[in-house]
Amino acid sequence: MGPVTPEERSAVINNSPLHGRYEEVIDRESAYERLKNRTESAPAVKPAPKSPPRRRSDTPFEAMTKSAARSFGRQLATAGRQATTEIIRGVLGSILGGTRRR
Fold first, then answer.
1. Nearest-angstrom CA–CA distance, 77 and 86
2. What is the largest CA-CA distance in the chain?
3. Among 4, 96, 97, 99, which has the highest number of CB atoms less than 10 A from its own CB?
């Protein structure tokens, strides 16, 4: 076995059923190139600057009310988590048999 000679190579290519189909090299435009051209050709649009929202200060009563609501919400969430945990333990314990004392 050895390398194919140029004459043998051209004979195989010429006798191939695909001869004439893939000999022309085509360099198609890739999706990256299309997107790049689209962004380069589009005019640069700057968004309108937004003015920062004005913040009004809370009255002492509003501040106290918000603080109490947050505190109550945290306590309620903690109690809810504890209740949920107990319910899940009870249900899973009854389904799976729980732990048995000896």
1. 14
2. 98
3. 4
